[in-house]
Each structure stands twice: as C-alpha cells, then as structure tokens.
Write a structure and sequence with these properties.
Blueprint lengths: L1 H19 L5 H15 L8 H16 L4 H6 L4 H4 L1 H20 L4 H8 L4 H10 L4 H26 L17 H20 L5 H15 L9 H17 L6 H31 L5 H8 L4 H11 L3 H26 L2
Helix pairs in contact: 1-2, 1-12, 2-12, 3-10, 3-11, 3-12, 3-15, 6-7, 6-13, 7-8, 8-9, 9-13, 9-15, 10-11, 13-14, 14-16, 15-16
Length: 338
C-alpha cells in the first residue's frame, strides 16, 4: 500500500512542477516524468492496474461521445490513409527486427515482438509464448510509448502552435447528473461486455462502442467532464512512469538504449508517412501525425482530445494498427522465425 501512495505522491509532484513551469500537458507528462526519474533513482512505487483500466474507459467514453451520423459516414473516405497502416507496420518490422537482433544482440522472439508497434500487454503475451525476454520487451515498449507521448506535444505546440492548455471538457458541475450517470454506465458496462467477449483493448474500445451507440441515438449528449479527462491523464502517466521501477544499470545501457534508438527510427518513419499524406492532400497534417505516431492507444487518444483533432480519424488508424499487429504478428513470427 505504501508503494502505491508513494507513486501517487510522486506523480502529483510532477503535475505541480509542470504547472509551475508552464510545460504542456502537466496532468500527463508531469506524472510520466516524475515517476520515471523516481524509478531510475530506485524509489519503490507501484501502480493500480484496475484503476488504470477504469481511467482508460473514460477515454473510450470521451471518443464514443463525439460520434455523430455525419462523422460515421465520413469514415468511409478514410480508406486512402487506412491502407497505409499495414504498410507502415510491415516497414517497422522489416527495419526493427534486424535492428534489435543484429545491432543489439537480442534473440529473434525478443527482437520481433520489440519491433511490433502493438499494445504492451499483447506484445508481452505473444513474446513470452515465443520464448522472448519479457523484461526487455516491457522496457522497450514502455520507452516507445513514453518517448512518443513526450515528443508529440512539443512537436504539436512548436510546429503547429496547437494550444494544449485548453480544458479537455466542461466542468462536471455544468453537466446534468443523468448524463454523468450515463457516462459511468457506458464506461463500466462497455468495458465488462467487451472483456467478456474477448475484445482486445476492452477497457477503451468497449466503452467507446457503447458510448458511440448512445451518442448516435441521441441518448448521450455530452463528453466526460474536464476533471475526468485530467484524472485519466494522471493515472495513465503514472502507469507509464512506474514501469521503470526496478530497472538496473545494465538494462538501461542495453534495453532502454536500444529502445531510444528504435524510437528515432519510428519518428522518422512516421514523419515520412505524414509527409506523403500531406503531399497528396489525403488528410490534415496534424491528424496524420497523431494517427501514424505509434504510441499507446490511450496516450494517443489523450493527445487527440486535447489537441482538438478529428477523433474518428485518429482512433480508426490506431485501432487498425493494433488489429494488424495482433492478427499478423504471430503468423509472421512463425513464418520468419529461424
């Protein structure tokens, strides 16, 4: 229990420091940074997986609540960029596997599942079944998510001048209690139903689907309040940072260093795809960047919400990326394993 309290205290300190320094996304980047530093200093901390999943369900409801009939119809026009997602996943694997295997000396299973830009839990499960190094996989994917999530706000603010200080919603006191209750229902019921049927990313996609149904039928008329989105950012940021608890000097020199180099490759690949999409006017550049940056699904949802991006566009591409990896990764791993 004390380790959980320490994690919350460190994360809260991170929020405070980021607010004082007027840095972007204090509720997300503050906990990530503070918990990362504390973990590297050997501070014992522990997150709460259930609460983290509950916070992810808030983001699912927030995305689902934005759906309208016109928005759903417009999704059909996304095929020109959606077809690029499997290509990007293929290129990431083509470059990433030799990078981890030949440059850093990881075995094939660890190299393959380190390169795949899927969800952390899925890649750890697949990697463990294939005989990979679970600890290395955990650190590499945590670093991928952290670097991309930390880098994107500065890119959005510095390059496009996106205002990331706007509240992500209206105050809870301005929303009807019936709507707040409906959001809680959509979050919990959607999560548990999706979990029961075995849907990947159940804590986000389940609430998103149920909230979208309620929004399209006119029953749900509001997004979750600002306080709920801030809480989601806080717990997700804390979870990312605390993944480094117990990291050793050798793991930093090898696993984390390998991950940082791979992040550079991912950012370059993302930039090339965004530039291609921009040159052919297939989508706005900001939406393209948020859609093709291979960060975590929850973290990308937060950034899209705060930046005021087209939620349907961004989420559709990340869902397709995760589907491509989950379905294709185990098959390709068996085909190409030595």
């Amino acid at each position: 229990m004390i380790h959980i309290l320490v994690a919350h205290g460190v994360a809260a300190l991170g929020v405070l420091v980021f607010h004082m320094l007027a840095l972007p996304l204090p509720w997300l980047l503050g906990p990530i940074t503070a918990c990362l530093i504390a973990a590297l200093l050997g501070v014992p901390m522990k997150g709460m997986p259930f609460v983290n999943n509950a916070m992810r369900s808030i983001l699912g409801v927030a995305v689902g609540a934005t759906f309208t009939v016109a928005l759903v119809i417009s999704m059909a026009a996304m095929w020109t960029t959606l077809i690029l997602v499997p290509l990007m996943v293929f290129l990431i694997g083509l470059i990433g596997v030799p990078y981890f295997q030949r440059l850093w000396g990881f075995d094939f299973a660890t190299s393959y599942y380190s390169a795949m830009p899927g969800g952390l839990q899925d890649m750890l499960l697949f990697g463990e079944e294939a005989g990979g190094d679970v600890r290395a996989l955990s650190l590499i994917h945590a670093t991928r998510v952290m670097v991309i999530v930390v880098a994107l706000p500065f890119i959005l603010k510095g390059y496009w001048g996106v205002d990331l200080s706007n509240p992500p919603g209206v105050p809870a006191t301005t929303l009807p209690l019936s709507q707040l209750a409906l959001m809680v229902f959509a979050g919990l019921a959607g999560w548990q139903i999706a979990k029961a049927v075995g849907l990947f990313g159940a804590s986000i996609l389940g609430p998103m689907i149920l909230a979208a149904i309620l929004a399209l039928t006119g029953i749900l008329q509001h997004r979750p309040p600002a306080e709920a989105i801030w809480a989601a950012q806080f717990f997700i940021g804390m979870t990312v940072g605390t993944k480094y608890v117990g990291v050793t000097g050798e793991e930093v020199r090898r696993d984390v260093a390998a991950a940082l180099g791979f992040c550079v490759i991912l950012l370059i690949l993302s930039a090339l795809f965004v530039e291609f999409i921009h040159l052919f006017a297939l989508a706005p550049p900001m939406e393209a960047l948020l859609a093709f940056a291979p960060g975590g699904q929850a973290e990308m949802t937060v950034l899209a919400l705060i930046a005021g991006a087209d939620m349907a566009f961004v989420i559709a591409h990340h869902v397709l990326r995760i589907i491509t990896v989950i379905i294709g990764a185990p098959i390709a791993a068996r085909l190409f394993s030595p």
